[in-house]
């Protein structure tokens, strides 16, 4: 009989557990950014415009499979950083768990930006399973939702696809390349857009130090662009202007059709560079590699 | 009352069907899964609560959480918080409370009447109606499944490669069938993630599915951690079974109809008992009865006086 009384008591106590367990009050749903951790807030990343594809990975500290995935994503975030892909961790734990979140991130070696204290809801899409991953385009539209954990190879291949399509559609700003013709001038060029059929190139010429630039057939200076590859057409193929003053620069945009990875274009300069003392005729031909 | 109980037992399969439907009610999620061709599961707010049976959270239609899965995730969380010196999350006590509440009321009753995987086992067994006895070595595997896979490993292991719900990840045939299989069939991207674990779990699941033909409830007998937990309550629960030895004619029908092979005449509240009440239904002389604590009344009536004498 006593045993039964004990059972009743235990059952009642457990019933109280049921009720208290439910009372998991989230204090506030404010979004806290781990700025000090990555040095930059997520907003800054958004606004920088350096990223055209954003992968938002929702996780929670209790979620075990998330951790393996986060280690994979860390590797991929480094791999795709220069190809316009940003990885953001989004933790749905409340703000009071910040200590745990930070220690976890350090333990897992995660360095991509992470926000926490989020609702388990992303733009009205309810998230009940972890991890859940969203892929956003540059205008922050959701282009893909992935429920559950995936292997690294899976993310690797879809990120590679997105990065490659970006490069083809020309949304990616390539790094400018610099040609110096000492001590007279610098010529900078970069691809603004790269497409299968048509690409756009920007060329900027600036005189160095005390020089100013003129042309042979005064006052026009000119740069002729040509390629040995007959499939390539360049418009315009001759760039000219009526001289560039000291401290100023001149830019041209050129459309190039039929470009390939191995295409080479040469630029023949016809420029007279003058300082206060003397003038020099430049007849250099420089290669432009794309 | 006994007539009503016997009627209920008669319609038990129907009740189990209703319970399975009540647990897996989100058909909208299923249609989402099929039309999108991408792995997606129900995302209803009810999923914060546990279901009364072994029913995978990741089953696309599931509207509730699996208590065993929740338990493992909570133990993982405890493990991690102790490791990182953080305050524990007491919300997990809900799971302990839920399990103890049901167990304290009626032991493994959910195994017999609610659990969708138990229902499936009963259904498949209907084909052959065979029920071979499983050697006790295999029957004790369920303690390993509970203490090692559900309790110890999630509480102790912390390495991102292995941390996780060990039972769900490496063993659970219910999860493989109701979550793994449909999601893998639909989602090509998920199939690419399949590994040796998938192969192992699929094999284990197939093995069990076949075994249901030959031994009724073989999963409950050998591997189920949830049934094992609730089994501990069988002897102490408010609802218990009782046999009246004087009315009993030793026909042995109760033991022959018991899907769990319990020697009913000696032990009515064995931890294997799933409270399906088949014994009660099949007893030709109504010698088996149940009682609810404190009501000194036994069902069927007529045995109260003997209860007094026994004391």
Task: Give a structural overview.
The complex is a heterodimer of chains A (about 290) and B (about 300). Chain A is an alpha+beta fold. Chain A has helices at about 1-20, 35-40, 40-50, 65-80, 100-110, 150-170; strands spanning about 30-35, 55-60, 85-90, 115, 120, 125, 130-135, 140-145, 175-180, 185-195, 200-205, 210-215, 220-225, 235, 240, 250-255, 265-275, 280, 285-290. Chain A is elongated. Chain A starts with a helix and ends with a strand. In chain A, about 35% of the residues are buried. Chain B has about 300 residues and is mainly alpha-helical. Mean pLDDT of chain B is about 90; it is low at about 300-310. Classes of the chains: A alpha+beta (about 290), B mainly alpha (about 300). Chains A and B meet through helix 1, helix 4, helix 5 and strand 8 of A and helix 4 and helix 5 of B.
What's a quick, concise take on this entry?
The complex is a heterodimer of chains A (290) and B (311). By secondary structure, chain A is α+β, with helices and mostly antiparallel strands.
Label this structure with key terms.
heterodimer, A: 290 residues, alpha+beta, 6-stranded mixed sheet, 6-stranded antiparallel sheet, 6 helices, 19 strands, 27% helix, B: 311 residues, mainly alpha, two-stranded antiparallel sheet, 18 helices, 56% helix, globular, disordered C terminus
Show the helix and strand layout.
The complex is a heterodimer of chains A (290) and B (311).
Chain A: H1 2-22, E1 32-33, H2 35-38, H3 42-48, E2 53-59, H4 64-80, E3 85-91, H5 98-108, E4 114-116, E5 121-122, E6 125-126, E7 132-136, E8 142-147, H6 152-169, E9 177-181, E10 185-193, E11 198-207, E12 212-215, E13 221-226, E14 233-235, E15 238-241, E16 250-257, E17 264-274, E18 279-282, E19 285-289
Parallel strand pairs in A: 2-3, 3-4
Antiparallel strand pairs in A: 1-4, 2-7, 5-6, 7-8, 9-10, 10-11, 11-16, 12-17, 13-15, 13-17, 14-16, 17-18, 17-19
Helix pairs in contact in A: 4-6
Chain B: H1 2-10, H2 12-23, H3 27-36, H4 67-83, H5 93-106, H6 109-113, H7 116-128, H8 136-139, H9 141-156, H10 166-171, H11 173-186, H12 188-191, H13 196-214, H14 218-222, H15 225-233, E1 239-243, H16 253-257, H17 278-282, E2 288-292, H18 304-310
Antiparallel strand pairs in B: 1-2
């Amino acid at each position: 009989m006593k045993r039964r009384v004990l059972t009743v008591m235990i059952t009642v106590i457990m019933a109280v557990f049921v009720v208290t367990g439910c009372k998991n009050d989230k204090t506030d749903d404010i979004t806290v950014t781990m700025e000090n951790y990555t040095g930059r807030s997520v907003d800054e990343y958004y606004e920088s415009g350096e990223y055209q594809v954003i992968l938002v990975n929702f996780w929670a500290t209790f979620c075990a499979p998330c951790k393996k995935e986060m280690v994979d994503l860390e590797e991929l975030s480094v791999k795709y950083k220069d190809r316009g892909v940003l990885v953001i961790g989004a933790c749905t734990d409340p703000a009071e768990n910040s200590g745990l979140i930070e220690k976890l991130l350090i333990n897992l070696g995660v360095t991509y930006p992470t926000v926490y204290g989020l609702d388990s809801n992303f733009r009205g899409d309810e998230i009940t399973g972890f991890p859940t991953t969203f892929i956003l385009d540059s205008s922050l539209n959701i282009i893909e939702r992935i429920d559950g954990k995936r292997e690294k190879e899976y993310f690797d291949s879809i990120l590679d696809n997105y990065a490659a399509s970006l490069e083809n559609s020309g949304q990616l700003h390539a790094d400018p390349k610099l040609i110096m013709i000492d001590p007279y001038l610098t010529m900078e060029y970069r691809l603004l857009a790269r497409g299968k059929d048509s690409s756009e190139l920007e060329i900027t010429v600036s005189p160095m130090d005390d020089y100013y630039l003129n042309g042979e057939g005064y006052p026009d200076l000119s740069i002729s662009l040509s390629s040995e590859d007959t499939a390539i057409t360049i418009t315009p193929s001759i760039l000219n202007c009526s001289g560039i003053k000291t401290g100023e620069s001149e830019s041209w945009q050129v459309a190039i059709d039929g470009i390939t990875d191995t295409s080479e274009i040469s630029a023949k300069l016809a420029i007279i560079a003058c300082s206060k003392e003397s003038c020099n005729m430049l007849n250099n031909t420089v290669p432009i590699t794309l | 009352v006994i007539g009503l109980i016997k009627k209920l037992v008669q319609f038990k399969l129907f009740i189990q069907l209703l319970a399975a439907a009540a647990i897996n009610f989100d058909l909208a999620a299923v249609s989402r899964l099929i039309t999108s061709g991408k792995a997606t599961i129900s995302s209803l707010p009810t999923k914060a609560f546990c279901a009364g049976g072994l029913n995978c959270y990741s089953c696309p239609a599931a509207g509730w959480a699996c208590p065993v899965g929740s338990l493992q995730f909570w133990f993982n969380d405890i493990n991690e918080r102790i490791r990182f010196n953080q305050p524990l999350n007491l919300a997990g006590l809900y799971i302990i409370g839920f399990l103890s509440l049901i167990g304290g009321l009626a032991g493994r009753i959910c195994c017999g009447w609610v659990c969708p995987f138990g229902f499936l086992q009963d259904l498949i067994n209907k084909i052959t109606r065979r029920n071979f006895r499983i050697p006790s070595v295999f029957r004790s595997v369920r303690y390993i499944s509970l203490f090692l896979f559900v309790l110890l490993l999630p509480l102790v292991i912390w390495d991102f490669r292995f941390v996780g719900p060990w039972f769900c990840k490496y063993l659970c045939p219910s999860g493989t069938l109701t979550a793994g299989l449909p999601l893998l069939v639909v989602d090509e991207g998920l199939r690419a993630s399949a590994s040796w674990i998938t192969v192992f779990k699929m094999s284990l699941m197939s093995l069990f599915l076949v075994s249901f033909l030959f031994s009724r409830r073989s999963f409950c007998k050998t591997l189920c951690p949830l049934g094992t937990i609730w089994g501990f309550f069988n002897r102490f629960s408010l609802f218990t079974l009782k046999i009246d030895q004087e009315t009993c004619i030793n026909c042995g029908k109760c033991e022959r109809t018991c899907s769990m092979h319990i020697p009913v005449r000696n032990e009515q509240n064995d931890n294997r008992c799933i409270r399906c009440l088949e014994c009660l239904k099949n007893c030709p002389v109504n010698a088996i009865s149940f009682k609810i604590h404190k009501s000194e009344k036994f069902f069927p009536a007529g045995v109260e006086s003997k209860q007094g004498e026994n004391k």
